[in-house]
Design a protein that fits this description.
By secondary structure, this protein is an alpha/beta fold. The protein is built from nine helices and seven strands; from the N terminus they run ααβαβαβααβααβββα.
Length: 223
Amino acid sequence: MIIELNAETVKTEKALGEPIIYGDAVKANILYHVNMHQARVAVIAISDPDATTRILANILQVSTKVHTIIRTRFVHEMEHYYKLGADEVIPEEFETSIEIFSRVLHKYLVPENEIENFVKHIRADNYEMFRPMPDSKAKNLSIDLPDIDIATLNVQQGKNEIIGKPLSESQIRKKYGITIVAIKRDDEFMYELSGDTEVLQNDVLYVFGNPQQIFEFNKKIKL
């Protein structure tokens, strides 16, 4: 079942014979038209939290047997939807993180089966291993990389020789021996980094390198 489409896509797909019913699932009556009571799975993949909450409530009023999957933007929204009765909640921000780290592991020629086990472990643990550390220690992920850690670091410092300067000037890799593979800034992920990219206060950095070097770098970006 497709919850949200634009009118042009619906017109095109209907012409190709795709059985689409176009409507607003916030309105409970649309769920009866799509025979929700007979559905095995319902996926809610929209960006409006209020509408998602209402749609989930409508679905569960029609059927308590349907398996509900919600795509949400942030991890902190997961608990809310689980409490409302969702069966699965997939947060975009950490799916992006998983993809970033998977690419790093591929670069280090980690076997594919180890990467798959790594990803399964993260998802099974509700993404807890990707949460930024609350203290000064970097987060260590369990993967067999000799002398290599993958970590998420919060930038708390206001400004120094790293903060507020482009990567080409701060020379983080040369000075600290670590590599920044991605930056989360506000609600956006940046993983196409260049020498002009700046590290700013409140950024979340995704880095890999020697554990001690990560620890030393982490001290520079803390208060």
